[in-house]
Amino acid sequence: MTVVVGLTGSIASGKSTVSNMFRNLNIPVIDADQLSREVVEPEQPAYEKIVRLFGEEVLHDDGAINRKKLGKIIFGNKEKRKALNEIVHPEVRKEMVHRRDFYKTQQYPAVVWDIPLLFESNLTSYVDRTLVVYVDEETQLKRLMERDQSSREDAEQRINSQMSLNEKAEMADAVIDNNGTVDESFEQLKSILAKWNIVY
Ligand SMILES: CC(C)(COP(=O)(O)OP(=O)(O)OC[C@H]1O[C@@H](n2cnc3c(N)ncnc32)[C@H](O)[C@@H]1O)[C@@H](O)C(=O)NCCC(=O)NCCS
Ligand SMILES: Nc1ncnc2c1ncn2[C@@H]1O[C@H](COP(=O)(O)OP(=O)(O)OP(=O)(O)O)[C@@H](O)[C@H]1O
């Protein structure tokens, strides 16, 4: 049986870091952020809808979506964020389900859904187990500002656009505390996989 693991956390809590650990164990990962980029490429149906809603000012000169600009608009405005989500999420979900079902036919011991909004979008019924990557607020803010070279204000706006990480940790089947080193987080991941009888 293939166990479907829903991997989540908050922005910059370490989801990609942990999803790379899964990949290194030969467990496939389906990345919602990556798919959310693919479904808004100019030839895709979501693209036209975004341009109609947000105008051509959210485009680069070559016609591609200017993610920095669109991000500035939606992370500071709940209504606009909801409108963008309503365009992008159904397309992402369709592809995630399709890929999940493909990997299930390939008899992998597990497949990972790496999805930042697993709880916010009520998608837990799509997975067998939920795993949250946790960091404290200070570490999160510091790592986010460092990684994206962003201001404190931008970083806080992004963090506040999601459910709190404490709330997510309470709802999860398992939590990786990623405040320490990457190696320490890897040790925690291996223990969780053993507990869930996932043999890789
Ligand atoms: C607004 C956009 C263009 C900004 O792009 P950008 O390249 O700067 O960021 P990226 O997509 O890499 O997202 C970075 C992180 O921001 C957070 N985030 C992204 N979208 C959202 C959202 N709608 N609500 C809350 N948090 C979000 C996630 O933690 C994500 O990991 C982009 O995030 C987007 O299209 N978002 C809507 C789709 C979405 O919800 N994606 C998340 C998973 S499906
Ligand atoms: N244990 C760790 N120690 C030090 N730095 C870390 C650790 N885990 C992650 N990082 C760094 O913190 C930043 C955020 O991590 P990562 O990109 O994995 O988060 P994420 O949850 O995938 O973010 P996003 O939601 O934006 O996709 C990265 O620069 C990463 O290299």
TrEMBL record:
<keyword id="KW-0418">Kinase</keyword>
<dbReference type="GO" id="GO:0004140">
    <property type="term" value="F:dephospho-CoA kinase activity"/>
</dbReference>
<feature type="binding site">
    <location>
        <begin position="12"/>
        <end position="17"/>
    </location>
    <ligand>
        <name>ATP</name>
    </ligand>
</feature>
<protein>
    <recommendedName>
        <fullName>Dephospho-CoA kinase</fullName>
        <ecNumber>2.7.1.24</ecNumber>
    </recommendedName>
</protein>
<dbReference type="Pfam" id="PF01121">
    <property type="entry name" value="CoaE"/>
</dbReference>
<keyword id="KW-0173">Coenzyme A biosynthesis</keyword>
<keyword id="KW-0547">Nucleotide-binding</keyword>
<dbReference type="GO" id="GO:0005737">
    <property type="term" value="C:cytoplasm"/>
</dbReference>
<dbReference type="GO" id="GO:0005524">
    <property type="term" value="F:ATP binding"/>
</dbReference>
<keyword id="KW-0808">Transferase</keyword>
<dbReference type="InterPro" id="IPR027417">
    <property type="entry name" value="P-loop_NTPase"/>
</dbReference>
<comment type="similarity">
    <text>Belongs to the CoaE family.</text>
</comment>
<comment type="function">
    <text>Catalyzes the phosphorylation of the 3'-hydroxyl group of dephosphocoenzyme A to form coenzyme A.</text>
</comment>
<keyword id="KW-0963">Cytoplasm</keyword>
<comment type="pathway">
    <text>Cofactor biosynthesis; coenzyme A biosynthesis; CoA from (R)-pantothenate: step 5/5.</text>
</comment>
<keyword id="KW-0067">ATP-binding</keyword>
<dbReference type="InterPro" id="IPR001977">
    <property type="entry name" value="Depp_CoAkinase"/>
</dbReference>
<dbReference type="GO" id="GO:0015937">
    <property type="term" value="P:coenzyme A biosynthetic process"/>
</dbReference>
